TrEMBL record:
Its cofactor is pyridoxal 5'-phosphate. The keyword Transferase applies. Belongs to the class-I pyridoxal-phosphate-dependent aminotransferase family. This is Putative aminotransferase TAT2 isoform A. GO terms for molecular function: L-tyrosine-2-oxoglutarate transaminase activity; pyridoxal phosphate binding. Keywords: Aminotransferase, Pyridoxal phosphate, Transferase. The keyword Aminoacyl-tRNA synthetase does not apply.
Length: 398
């Protein structure tokens, strides 16, 4: 796989506790890189090459390539000299139309340009979704394991985090009973990640339908993080949560980053899936527009390239990406079978990550997952992320 994670118990040694003080993945990756011994050499006396399996960046491997038509689309937009100025705060009109049409292919209704707002990657879309829902006393339901940025954004916005568990024995499905127990009148959203990061799961149509019904029953909306949308290579196809927009309002977050292999371009979207019109209430629309007036979106010429990128990328490129992900997942799981101390509770079916379980009883002088990851980095120059980083320790903003 292009990214890997280890999950075990949550005991933290003193020297490793520094790692958990920074909730971001980049923060702990920096600490792990710092722990690599510069003098660590292989048997021939040369320095070991660092193997980093901790960052969801497909460009770090030669296996995945950005299609030429995507690069040409950007070059054409830049060379036209029409897009050196500021873009509208909600995004270039042609980009919003193209994204609306692209997402509508998989929906039973048609999105409009007014439903789409362009963001600096999916990370900014996450922050926007939390900011839009923040109010005194609000709480948000987040998955555990989950992506740490959600909790950090909630902490900065003063939104209480309540965690519901994902169930590995059920393919990391949402514990819907826990959702119902956690939700109250101050719950502003239920967040899901599909395909899943860091678990590599893909939710079925039936399970997504149950999530929508549960959210409706408890009176909240769904934030659906689909940054890995369509990167499903198992038995279940990718189904966007927006399919159930008539059941419950959905905020869909996504980007070009993963599917088009361009994470550094930072071009994402924040989309309201709401055929019933809940988000069209004037005060809500005005609030969203005013908030985007505070933000700076991606470079204008990148936005201008979006229609050409979506229209000209051939299906064979997507198929090759899926084949590569499936192949690497198979290799990773097969190799893990030969490692006595590591167990994979669920073979990944999507995204670019997976969770594995560490059996401490088979290891000497290893206290927990953080200890394991730091010693693995130092001794073997292999970087993986401790599962604790995805188990959402409550943090306060700096």
């Amino acid at each position: 796989m292009e990214s890997g994670v280890v999950a075990v118990n949550n005991n933290i040694n003193n020297y490793e506790s520094k790692a958990t003080s920074t909730i971001t993945i980049k923060g702990i990756l920096s600490l792990l890189m710092e722990s690599i011994d510069d003098e660590n050499c292989d048997g021939g006396g040369s320095k070991k090459r660092v193997i980093s399996l901790g960052m969801g960046d497909p460009t770090l491997t030669t296996l995945f390539h950005t299609p030429k038509v995507v690069e040409e689309a950007v070059a054409d937009a830049l060379q036209s000299r029409k897009f050196h100025g500021y873009a509208p705060t909600a995004g270039l009109l042609q980009a919003r139309i193209a994204i609306a049409e692209y997402l509508s292919r998989d929906l039973p209704y048609q999105l409009s340009r007014d439903d789409v707002f362009i963001t600096c990657g999916c990370t900014q879309a996450i922050d926007v979704s939390v900011a839009m829902l923040a109010r005194p006393g609000a709480n948000i339901l987040l998955p555990r394991p989950g992506f740490p940025i959600y909790e950090l954004c909630a902490a900065f916005r003063g939104v209480e985090v309540r965690h519901y568990d994902l169930l590995p024995e059920k393919g990391w499905e949402v514990d819907l009973d826990a959702v119902e127990a956690l939700a109250d009148q101050n719950t502003v959203a239920l967040a899901i990640i599909n395909p899943g990061n860091p678990c590599g799961n893909v939710y079925s149509y039936h399970h997504l339908e149950k999530i929508a019904e549960t959210a409706k029953r408890v009176g909240t909306i769904v934030i659906s993080d689909e940054v890995y949308g369509h990167l499903a290579f198992g038995s279940k196809p990718f189904v966007p949560m927006g399919v159930f927009g008539s059941t419950v309002p959905v905020l869909t977050l996504g980007s070009l980053s993963k599917r088009w292999i361009v994470p550094g371009w930072r071009l994402g979207w924040f989309v309201t899936n709401d055929p019933s019109g809940t988000f069209r209430e004037p005060k809500v629309v005005e609030r969203i527009k005013k908030y985007f007036d505070l933000l700076g979106g991606p470079a204008t010429f990148l936005q201008a390239a979006v229609p050409q990128i979506i229209a000209n990328t051939e299906e064979i490129f997507f198929e090759k990406t899926i084949d590569n992900l499936r192949h690497t997942a198979d290799i990773c799981c097969k190799e893990i079978e030969d490692i006595p101390c590591i167990f994979c509770p669920y073979k990944p079916e999507g995204s670019m990550a997976m969770m594995v379980k560490l059996n401490l009883s088979l290891l000497e002088d290893i206290s927990d997952d953080i200890d394991f990851c730091f010693k693995l980095a130092k001794e073997e120059s292999v970087i993986i992320l401790p599962g604790l980083q995805f188990l959402s320790i409550q943090q306060k903003p700096c």
